[in-house]
Specification:
This protein is of the alpha/beta class. Helices cover 23% and strands 18% of the residues. The chain contains 5 helices and 6 strands, in the order βαβαβββαβαα. A 6-stranded parallel β-sheet has the order 3-2-1-4-5-6. The chain is globular and about 60 Å long. The N and C termini lie far apart (47 Å).
Length: 215
């Protein structure tokens, strides 16, 4: 709890469970890096998922990353202003947090990188969109813009009445290209094919990635 953060102003405030690992964390991390490289001021709000250990300390990798880039963590009791608030994973808002900072903002964005169900049969529930929308209104006064990470996700959102109309933009998950290049030279198998094959930008899942190129 650092009271000097109160009344601080940020260009972008990222809200998510920073103890999550995998693609969600790396995508959020790369959005933060992109914001910093464009000269934007950044803050984060840690919103632990209720299904996990909400009392767990923030993992070392995340704390080291935030300290390296001088990014403050906004906590309950603070009041801050943000031009844009980005919810990095809608599932965290499936449960209401008892104590939440006061966040004055101009724009609210929800990155839809996970549909409500993790399986095509709808038995593995990740979150309830109608509940998340209600909690957004309670926290921020509105449900914001819901932005899909792919055209496949956009199509699923448009077919599901529980979701608001998806935003016209598509936020393809970012990668830190300089980190990839630093790992070694890129190889184009020019002797095998005339054009390079581009990899996918999300994990291989029926609810995230199309099964056919035309999709």
């Amino acid at each position: 709890m650092r009271p000097e953060h109160s009344r601080a102003t940020f260009d972008v405030l990222f809200l998510g469970d920073w103890n999550m690992q995998g693609g969600t964390f790396h995508s959020a991390r790369n959005m933060i890096l992109a914001s910093l490289r464009q000269g934007r001021t950044v803050g984060v709000v840690n919103y632990p998922r209720y299904e996990y250990d909400v009392a767990a300390h923030m993992r070392y990798e995340v704390r080291a990353f935030l300290q390296q880039h001088d990014i403050p963590v906004i906590v309950a009791g603070e009041t801050v202003q943000a031009k844009t608030v980005v919810v990095t994973y809608p599932a965290v808002l499936d449960y209401f947090m008892d104590r939440f900072p006061t966040i004055e903002h101009e724009r609210l964005v929800v990155v839809v990188n996970q549909m409500a169900e993790r399986d095509v049969l709808g038995r593995d529930i990740a979150y309830r969109p109608e509940v998340v929308r209600r909690h957004l209104v309670e926290y921020f006064g509105g449900e914001g813009d819901w932005v899909p990470i792919s055209n496949r996700v956009r199509a699923l959102m448009e077919q599901d009445a529980r979701y608001p109309k998806p935003h016209s933009d598509t936020w393809t998950p970012m990668i830190a290209a300089d980190e990839w290049l630093a790992a070694g030279p890129s190889h184009w198998r020019g002797r095998e094919r005339r054009l390079p094959i581009l990899g996918r930008h999300g994990r291989d899942h029926k609810l995230k990635w199309p099964g056919e190129a035309k999709a």
